[in-house]
Amino acid sequence: MSLVLTEEQELLRDTAREFVREQAPVAALRKLRDAEDPIGFSRELWSEMANLGWSGIIFPEEYGGAGLGYAELGVVMEELGRTLVANPMMSTVLLAGNAIALGGNETQKKDVLPSVCSGERLLAFAHQEGSRHQPYRVTTTAERDTDGYRISGEKTFVLDGHIADQLVVVARTSGELRDREGLTLFLVDVNADGISRTRTSMVDSRGYANIKLTNVSVERSAIVGDVDLGANVVDVVLDRATAALSAEMLGGFTEAFERTLTYLQTRVQFGAPIGSFQALKHRAAIMFCEIELSRSIVLDTLRAIDEDRDDVPSRVSTAKARCSDSYHLIGNEAVQMHGGIGVTDEEEIGFFLKRARVSQQTLGDAAYHRRRFASLRGF
Amino acid sequence: MSDLEAFREEARAWLESNGPTSMHLPIPESEVVWGGRQEAFSNPDSRVWLERVSEQGWTVPTWPKEYGGAGLSKAEERVLTEEWRRARCRPALMSFGISMLGPVLLEYASEEQKREHLPKIARGEIRWCQGYSEPDFGSDLAGLQTKAVLVDDEYVVNGQKIWTSYADKSDWIFCLVRTDPAASKHDGISFLLFDMASPGVSVAPIQLISGSSPFSQTFFEDVRVPKANLVGTLNGGWTIAKRLLQHERAMISQMGLGLAGSSNQSIDALAKEYVGTENGQIEDSILRDRIAQHMMDNECYGTSLRRSMEEAKAGQGPGAASSMFKFYGTELNKQRYELLVSVLGTQGLGWEGEGFSEHELKTTREWLRSKGNSIEGGTSEIQLNIIAKRVLGLPD
Ligand SMILES: Cc1cc2nc3c(=O)[nH]c(=O)nc-3n(C[C@H](O)[C@H](O)[C@H](O)COP(=O)(O)OP(=O)(O)OC[C@H]3O[C@@H](n4cnc5c(N)ncnc54)[C@H](O)[C@@H]3O)c2cc1C
Fold first, then answer.
1. Residues B85 and B191 in one domain
2. Which of A56, A350, B151, B213 could be cross-linked to A65 through a Cys-Cys bond (beta carbons 3.0 to 4.6 Å apart)?
3. Whether ipTM exceeds 0.85
4. B31 Cα: distance to centroid of ligand 1 (angstroms)
5. Residue B360 resides in a domain
6. Sign (positive or negative) of CA dihedral B321, B327, B328, B332
7. Is A232-376 a CATH 2.60.40.10 domain?
């Protein structure tokens, strides 16, 4: 598949760009933050995104989706990243929704996906424990009892966990702490007895929760996929979500860079635009190269998923490592090159730095993905 | 079957029946054919191979047939490259004529000049060197002072060039000369071709830190050059000079892919061998991380080259892409050799003689040679200047 956007994809990009500029500029995120909005994003906006077909963009038409590919999803994610739009694409569509779409049975898919596509139902993926992404490091247990399972454990950093209607919980049904085998996925209603959710307020002003499960009782029908073989679903879900997140990050640092470039051209010191100083020029040129390389790998990774290529896992790790490094670099440089105004709350550039740091950590930072890449390549 | 697939079969069949196993990769440095009057063909099969390939027009596949090429489209050329790789055949000819001079002659030279020079480049008969840099004008190339003065029907050339790669082995030089000292510096330069055997040309080799001596100082004392050897317009040489640099940078950019070099083994395999493993992982976790990072960067780079080709085909893409690739590719290549030397430990620091394998010694020399990558063809800093100005539009 070509790395050049098709006409349809360009059209989608233009639509998305116009939509986010008008409906969800960075100012909208600031407003949600200042109002301490209990949801963390605008449900109205999410309905409109659903109307545009984005909430179901990757899901088959028979479940109410648009049946498009990751190349198209990536176009939308990139634009959402440009203005730091708070939205439940990651939680509801790419993580939990995808777990159902890829691992669920027909009943579950029919039950869940249409209402996800319509924008009515919100989901969250309760997976991480502790302070970092370690996909098989799961201590939350699901123990058999007469009719089903009882789940207990503590989940952290659950994207949109505080407002989801249902959770896909990753729990251990057998095996040792870091074993790949022994994980099982459960679809759990948030109103079930034994669930307590605490929203955590994080620097990027988006919604996250810590979720405690105490003897939460679920029926066998809540199992998503096969008992003990949940990692088969988790791996694929994480790869796809990570590719999508990389596309969002690409949009974020491209925008932060473009804003900085404008500043370099307009801010005058010593009687000259600061962009005429070579110390800044070279750093800007290096950032440009990093962005170009990031864009190439993101585009190819999305297409690798659409083509179902064997190298999806290593491409995903390459994309996430690079986008994490690029966002880190550009987030910091953007603030520095804005001078004093860059570290004020009033100037929007700081929002990019904050989102950079959170998205770097989400689904594994650069070092995590380099380790994973090395293992995948057998060294 | 599409025309392209038909061409693929044709190319495959031809390579199979015409490419003897002695002309398969790898190619020892001593057997690389650069052509020209001094070419000794240390492996006699390589002479036959060059004849066969150039007969097909495949040393310069996209050039028109009348100039020694095969008139292939870009798509056909890609197929040919793929088949070449698949057949593991050696390149028949390496040359600055092919990668740098030829493309600008095609664009700017007169019909007569094209007919005179292009077929000889294609057949490897004449080897060319590049007379750009001068002792006082390197990065600031446009300041060059080598003079050419028209006397009757000849230019008389006086001055000095430096870092002229393979000047001692080349037959002709493409040379930047000042033809109008009064004009502003970019507007008084012309692009001149002449025979290195002309009276008044002399060459003094310079040794590199790697021990080899691929380049020279080149002196011109009253060298007489026929007027007809000026390419393009008088005092219009800077445009041609810049275009040639783009071709040169594109060629150097290929280094970023890490295909060159003496080792058949990948860097991770070498690390496993030299550093050792623990549970199948390279024992030194920091080195492991750096190798992973490098391999990923390399793959991003390769994907970017591919994207840039596809964008060019679709008529888009950043104009100064060649500067980006020159910068990034050469920095990547240097980084690769830094890593290789780290991987080999003290075995990667031998100079010559006993105690080191041939491959180890070569890696050390290549590591030193790689330091020139971010200098030759315009330094990394100059590439960043170009990106800042031409792509980002930052003010002077
Ligand atoms: C292996 C090799 C092969 C070569 N082959 C040829 C050849 O065949 N023909 C030929 O003509 N030339 C050749 N060159 C020469 C090469 O093009 C020059 O060395 C190069 O352009 C730099 O010029 P310089 O050496 O004079 O360095 P300088 O221009 O003196 O640069 C010194 C340092 O200053 C920096 N600098 C200079 N100007 C600026 C600026 N404006 N902003 C920021 N930093 C700056 C440079 O980046 C560099 O780090 C070769 C060089 C090498 C290393």
1. no
2. A56
3. yes
4. 29
5. yes
6. positive
7. no
